[in-house]
Amino acid sequence: MGKNLVIILAGGAGERLLLLSEHRAKPAVPFCGSYRIIDFALSNCANSGLHDIFVLSQYRPHSLARHIGSGRAWSLDREDCGIVTLQPYVGTTSRWYSGNADAVFQNLHFIEERSAENVLVLGGDHVYSMDYRKLLEFHREKNADLTVSVKQVKPQDTHKFGTCVLEGDGRIVDFVEKVKDAPSNLASMGIYVFKSELLSASLTADYQDPSSSHDFGRDIIPRLIGSHRVYAREFDCYWEDVGTINTYYEVNMKMLGSPPPIDLDSPEWRIRTNYGDLPPAMISGSSSLSEAMIGEGARVSGKVEHSLIGPEVTVEEGAVVRDSIILPGCTIGRDAKVNLAILDKHCRVGEGARIGYGVDFTPNEAHPHVMQSGITLVGRGIQIPPSAVIGRNCLVGSQKSGALLHVPSGKSVL
Amino acid sequence: MEQPFTMILAGGRSRHLPVLTSYRSIAALPYGGKYRVIDFCLSNCMNSGIRDVGILAQYNPTSLISHIGNGAPWDLSGRRHGVVILQPYRARKESNWYRGTADALWQNLRFLKNASSEHVLVLSGDHIYKMDYRPLLEFHSQSGADATVVARPTRGIVPRRYGALVLDNEGVVRELVEKPDTAGFDYFSLGIYVFKRDVLIERLRICMEKRFDLVFDVLMPLIEEARVMAYQFEGFWADVGWLEEYYRSSMELIEKPGQADLGDPAWPICTRDPVRMPSYVGKSASVESSLVAGGCRIEGSVKASILFPGVRVERGATVENSIVFSDTSVGEGATLRSAIIDKEVSVGRGCFVGYGSPTCSNSHFPDSASFGVSVIGKRTAIPDGVRVGRNCLIAADLSEREIPRRDIVCGEIITGESEWERILS
If pLDDT is split at 50, 70 and 90, which confidence band does B1 have? Predict the structure, then answer.
């Protein structure tokens, strides 16, 4: 078996995640309490025995870099290979990455140096458990030049993905990226296995094409259909793109299901993360918990219903958290009520404050299509004053004095 | 302050922790929801800036060794520093098990001699405590003592299990009385010592003729012939070498969380962290006054208990005043009351562990299992519906077939045929 190199595309700004990705790349957005989204890709690699990994990042990479560190959390800190983060750099080209294909192209030299037989290109922003060995095996069996991992999606969702049409043996005969009338409901998951030489050749050709947007799905893949052996392998387990605030909320909440769509602690396929050294959660006598996920280091004295409580979160006495996602390090003060809200890390909700208040579900003024389901989003480190009242579909990204005492539904404080 | 070479004595087993230490040393005993006892000592080292540590281990060291690994969780892993586990070994001329604590040091003399430091810090790996060793080392080197013993006020209690210390006005140790029966001692020794390296080596050489104990054969002669100082320590400290102390000290983590303060950012207690997902508490579940580590799935009711990582409490099950180690499952409708359940145990549906009230002590361990708590050993499977009374001890690795299908009454001990000898040794 030849060598395989993995490239994780982690440059995404994840604009539709609004405040959650304001200070961090989308793959570094926290997930289900103690995880970050990229943990799925990294754990899948480690569990598949793939240890030679490049992570391409550009947008706000600091959280991501800190999280990955030496890769030890995933046992990726190896002597002979390991995980390397590649940022835009000053050199022969000295350009920002313009598109995910360009990001790979600019690092082609390092990729070729590894003399891998196949290069597995992945996104760093999906939630799924997948054994990449099966994909690589399929690729080899079909003697494919390129293999795309695909999944059936609902007909109404096809416009969000690249879709493809297959021949009987799985060869792709048509591939179009994000169009209205998609030719099928087989969506590309943004997971590709390239024969190494083909990757080099097609990226080089793409670089020289002034009309290209330098995107794998839009430019690279469609051009290879017909001229090369491009195959699709169907994946039929859980896979989700956490692209918007709504899907972010839904996918997190699904982890409260019995059973959840992915067993993060499965002994066969554990999802690992770099967050630890916290004491057990302390649940006090006055608390009440139902359908709750509680991270380590949390201290709960209040009431938690159908919510994710991240590590090191404090819920004080009399506080009520319902249908909400509380990211690590937040404090919910005495008698505060948090309803249908996402609180980014290290927020503090003052005593008696209310977040997600009332029956007015006016969509957000700035993002009416993204923020209309009632979720209120509070940015990292925001201090909500005591007795403040914040409505629904609100975005709270700054704390100008007095501005947070009363925020009506649909308003933004940025 | 120069780096002392640090030796941790982790060889200990305890006859007073039946079942729990049948496969592991006290140092490797799980404690506090996710830690092992030795984590406290190692974290103290880390937080005190100590980077070179030897661990003397002899008794059933496998779980200790895999726990310590490369020492990275405590920053004890580097090119020129780190942790080394010193086990008994064969040599050309003479090969012995460690015949005592002094012998364990003596047999690893090479490490002491090679250490660059003039001082040797000797710690016990069997205690739960938070202590900055830097002021102790400072005190030791400034006082010019040949040895320094860490002393804790007795507060009027007779230190029956420890070495009582008699000090003079200057803090010089005048006498050490091992395990006294009478009152009148103001201090006892915590088994934490600093020695001048050359003094220690010389003393070991003398006593190795026929005696092997660090307290009797090294420290006591030094008290008589040299200058041994006492260093007072009044911070958090607990000895968990007795079942009752282990249980009580664990429960205090819930009742007085500020005392051990496991989450103190200024003094982190680190462990080889089994990173697990956040714990899930189901719809009809209830959790009260408890410590819950990661990866638990709670569908039943948990009260005043400590759950280690990956514990499952099924629907209708009740866990009260109990300590449950990693990956144990408590079946539907089962009840645990005042029980300590080791790792990977399966408690069947409808079982009741800890029923009734304690009427007698354990038949074989009357001194240990006498305060109402029952213990079930690692990986044992309790069949559906079995009831286990108080002060019961059920050995490790018993299959359902080996558990009698009847009420196991107060004070009973259950063990496989082949296990009797080991359990009772």
Answer: low
Q: Which amino acid is at B187?
A: Y
Asked if B292 has any chain A CB less than 8 Å from its own CB, the reply is: yes
pLDDT exceeds 70 at position B52: yes
Domain identity same for B224 and B290: no
Same domain assignment for residues B19 and B66: yes
Tell me the whole-structure pTM to 2 decimals: 0.92
Domain of residue B353 covers: 274-425
Classify residue B107: in a domain, yes or no.
Answer: yes
Nearest CA among B349, B254, B260, B371 for reference residue B302: B254
Q: Which residues contact B208 (CB under 8 A, 6 or more apart)?
A: B102, B103, B106
pLDDT tens per residue, range B8-18: 998 777 789 99
ipTM confidence score: 0.89
Query: What CATH number did the domain enclosing B312 receive?
Result: 2.160.10.10
**Count of structural domains, chain B:** 2
d(CA A32, CA A249) in angstroms, rounded, equals 10
Using alpha carbons, select from B368, B343, B382 the residue that is nearest to residue B246.
B368
Interface of A with B (CB under 8 A): 32-35, 72-73, 256, 258, 264-265, 271-273, 275-285, 287-297, 304, 308-311
| Domains annotated on chain A, with CATH | 4-254 (3.90.550.10), 282-413 (2.160.10.10)
Asked if B390 and B247 count as a contact pair (C-beta separation under 8 A), the reply is no
**Does some domain include residue B267?**
no
| Residues B307 and B420 reside in one and the same domain | yes
Q: How far apart are the CA of B290 and the nearest CA of chain A, in angstroms?
A: 5
pLDDT digits 0-9 by tens, B292-320: 999 999 999 999 999 999 999 999 999 99
Consecutive H or E run containing B289: none
